Amino acid sequence: MKVIVNGVEHEIAAATLAAALKALDYENATVATALNGHFVPARKREQAKLAEGDRIEIVAPRQGG
Prior knowledge:
Blueprint: E1 2-5, E2 8-11, H1 17-23, E3 32-35, E4 38-40, E5 55-59
Parallel strand pairs: 1-5
Antiparallel strand pairs: 1-2, 3-4, 3-5
């Protein structure tokens, strides 16, 4: 299915947000996620179902100053 990840269209075979993160090589990364503009905590990613055209935002923490 086609989803938008951080503004870029991707074709992935994933039914949940957790599966999408795995498919996009973020499985073991420490990231914050949002699905269609709503924050999804890590513990709820397995239950967050995906649909064609969904918008996923993935944000990684950064250090610096």
